[in-house]
Amino acid sequence: MTASADSARLPGATRPVALVTGPTSGIGLGYARRLATLGYDLVLVARDEERLAGLAAELDRKYATRSEVIAADLAVAEDRARVADRAGAGVEFLVNNAGFGLSGEFWTLPMDRLQAQLDVNVTAVVQLTRAALPPMIAAAKGSIVNVASVAGLVPGRGSTYSASKAYVVSFTEGLAGGLVGTGVRIQALCPGFVHTSFHERAGIEMSSLPKQMWLSVEQVVADSLHDLERDRVLSVPGVQYKVITTMAGLVPRPLQVRINRGLFNSRGRT
Ligand SMILES: NC(=O)c1ccc[n+]([C@@H]2O[C@H](COP(=O)([O-])OP(=O)(O)OC[C@H]3O[C@@H](n4cnc5c(N)ncnc54)[C@H](OP(=O)(O)O)[C@@H]3O)[C@@H](O)[C@H]2O)c1
C-alpha cells in the first residue's frame, strides 16, 4: 500500500475514510449512514457540532465506525481551509453535499447571504475537490460525489441557486474527462425534490408539490451509488426526473426561457 493510500485511513484503523459535508441532516445524513454500512470510517463536516457528535456516536454504536468530527462553516474561508487540509491529507471518498437555497427576490437579499450561498454551494466544492484529488490520484483510487440538482440541469426557478448547481454540474462533467484513466471516479448527483429540511430552512413553501415528485433520501443515495458503480458521471435519481431532464434537453434553450418567463415561476426564489 502506498503512503497516499495509508493516509486515507484514520490513524491505526484499517478501514477507508469518507469525508461527507453536511451530514447533520437530509441527503448528507443518508450518505454518511450508507457509507458507514459499507465499511467506511468517516470525517463529518458541518456547523452543528452537537449533531455531528451525536451522529458519530450513532455510527460507532451501530457499525463500529470511527468518525472524525470537524465543526466548520463552509462559508468561512478559514474553516474551508481546515477542511481542505483534512481532505488533502487523504480520503478515499468525498461527498460534497452541504448546500442551501434562499427565498426572497435576488435584488432584496443581503450580499453577504448571496456570497455565503456561493461559497458553500460552489467554492467549497471546488476547494475540497482540489485538495482531495492529489492523494486519490497517487493511490489510483477514489470517488467524489458532488451534490448538484435538477435545478442545475434545467433552467427555471431561482437565479443564484440554479446557477450554483449548474456550475457544479459543468465543473464535474469537465473534470471527469480529465480523470479518465486515473482510477478516480467523479459524479454530479442531480436530485429533484427530496424530503429533507432544505425547503423549510430556505423558507420555501412546498405543500402544493404532487406526492409523486418527492424522492426519499434513501432512493437518492442508492441511485447515486448505483450510478457511481457504473462510472456514470451524471446521476439523476427517479424515473420522473430522468423523463423531465431528458425532455427539457430536447426543447431549444430560448423556448425553455420563454416558457419559464411565461410561468412567472422564478419570483421569490434565488
Ligand atoms: N432537498 C432537495 O429537494 C434537494 C434537491 C436537489 C439538491 N439538493 C442539494 O442537496 C444537498 C443537501 O441538501 P439537503 O436537502 O439534505 O438539505 P438539509 O437537510 O438542509 O441539509 C443541509 C446540510 O448542509 C449543511 N450545511 C448548510 N450550510 C452549511 C455551511 N455553511 N457550512 C457547513 N455545512 C453547511 C447542514 O449542516 P449544518 O446546518 O449543521 O451546518 C446540513 O447538514 C444541498 O447541496 C442541496 O442543494 C437538495
What do you see in this structure?
- With 270 residues, this protein is an alpha/beta fold.
- Helix content is 49%, strand content 14%.
- The protein has ten helices and nine strands.
- The protein has helices spanning 3-7, 26-37, 49-63, 77-88, 111-139, 160-178, 198-202, 217-229, 239-250, 253-263; strands at residues 17-21, 41-46, 67-71, 93-96, 142-147, 184-189, 193-194, 214-215, 234-235.
- It has a seven-stranded parallel β-sheet with strand order 3-2-1-4-5-6-9, sandwiched between helices. A two-stranded parallel sheet has the order 7-8.
- β1, α2 (26-37) and β2 (41-46) form a beta-alpha-beta unit.
- α2 (26-37) packs across α8, α4 packs parallel to α5 (111-139) and α5 runs parallel beside α6.
- The model has no long low-confidence stretch (mean pLDDT 93).
- NADP nicotinamide-adenine-dinucleotide phosphate is lined by residues 21-28, 46-48, 51, 73-75, 97-100, 120, 147, 149, 191, 193-194, 196-198, 201.
